[in-house]
């Protein structure tokens, strides 16, 4: 599991006006919640996008650092994007404790070609793309591989 440090600044203004002001100067409005507190932040858009791209779709623990404070371990629970331009417009960070279990969705990857598809003309339907996993933050798997090569028509 990768740990990435991101610099954040507290936002004085919250709500729509504060978010628009942050976006205007090249930041992404963000919220850090959990452990009994909620902090409104802004992070640099280019820095966050570059670090997210470098993570290559892995589950990442973020060290959110604010001036004069210790880094806070967190997960990026939601990254909102503009529907047309696809630019990031908001990030929700969840503050975590590395010694406490959390629930996270993990991607399910199918491995192999089912026997029923290969030899009997069946169709593989993959309806569940993610499963919820309860584990320590440092033990979050990147994905769960499921071998489907032995499945016949009608099997699940």
Q: Quote the beta fraction.
A: 35-45%
Using the CA coordinates, give the radius of gyration.
20 Å
> How many helices in DSSP terms?
3
The class by helix and strand makeup works out as: alpha/beta
* Overall geometry: elongated
Element-by-element helix/strand order: EHEEHEEEEHEE
Strands across the major sheet, in which order?
A: 1-3-2-6-5-4
Number of strands: 9
Overall mean pLDDT:
89
Indicate the low-confidence ranges by residue numbers.
none
Cα end-to-end separation:
31 Å
Provide a concise account of the structure shown.
With 156 residues, the protein is an alpha/beta fold.
Describe, in plain words, how this protein is organized in 3D:
The protein is an alpha/beta fold. The protein has helices spanning 15-24, 45-54, 115-120; strands at residues 2-10, 27-34, 37-44, 60-65, 72-81, 88-95, 102-111, 130-135, 143-147. The chain has a six-stranded mixed barrel with strand order 1-3-2-6-5-4. The radius of gyration is 20 Å and the shape is elongated. The two termini are 31 Å apart.
């Amino acid at each position: 599991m990768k740990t990435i440090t991101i610099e954040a600044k507290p936002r004085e203004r919250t709500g729509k006006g504060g978010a628009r002001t942050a976006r205007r100067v090249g930041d992404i409005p963000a919220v850090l919640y959990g452990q009994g507190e909620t902090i409104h932040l802004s992070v640099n858009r280019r820095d966050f996008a570059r670090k997210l791209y470098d993570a290559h779709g892995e589950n990442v623990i973020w060290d959110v650092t604010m001036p004069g404070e210790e880094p806070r371990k967190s997960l990026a629970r939601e990254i909102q994007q503009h529907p047309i331009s696809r630019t990031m417009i908001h990030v929700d960070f969840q503050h975590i404790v590395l010694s406490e279990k959390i629930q996270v969705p993990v991607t399910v990857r199918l491995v192999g070609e089912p026997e029923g598809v290969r030899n009997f003309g069946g169709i593989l339907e993959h309806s569940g793309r993610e499963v919820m996993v309860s584990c320590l933050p440092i033990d979050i798997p990147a994905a769960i591989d499921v071998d489907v090569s032995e499945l016949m028509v009608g099997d699940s």
